[in-house]
Amino acid sequence: MTKSRNDNDNNEQPISSKSKPARRGWIFILIALVVIAFIMIRDARRSIDWAGDYQAAVQQARQTHKPLLLVFVKTGDSDCERMKNATYINEQIIKYINRSFVPVMLDVELNKKLADKYEISTLPNHVVAIPDRKEFHTVPGYVVAGEFIGRLKRALKKLNPSEN
Questions:
Q1: Residues 84, 23: one domain?
Q2: Which of 4, 53, 95, 155 has its CA 20 to 30 A from that of 19?
Q3: Which range, of 14-23, 111-120, 147-156, averages the lowest pLDDT?
Q4: Is 70 in contact with 120 (CB distance < 8 Å)?
């Protein structure tokens, strides 16, 4: 039995030189999609960088020379839950708080002495304070995302009128 020049032993087609650039194109597209997916996942997980506890927040505020943002909440409180699910997830609020403050979320029932010190009577309550200073300003209650940054800025300006 004789074989013709076009017969292959394993019936494979030879790879043409035209398919190598096509493969490179697909590899480039695949890499680009992976990078885009990574960026989207990273941005989707962006959140406020809450300090672990009050003492850690005070220490970080002293080191970074940023004011504290103490957020007093209570588990199960509807306004506290609304702030968590609507206001604190807003991208502009996340950026502003992370850039301007050392934030810490405090359960009012577990931090009663601090709640008394900062005269917390409404929940949620946002206290803008500077470590080692007695003066502080509050942003009490539920605040919609569109108003929250302005209210924080006003509280910060009252605390440091010469810096704003």
A1: no
A2: 4
A3: 14-23
A4: no
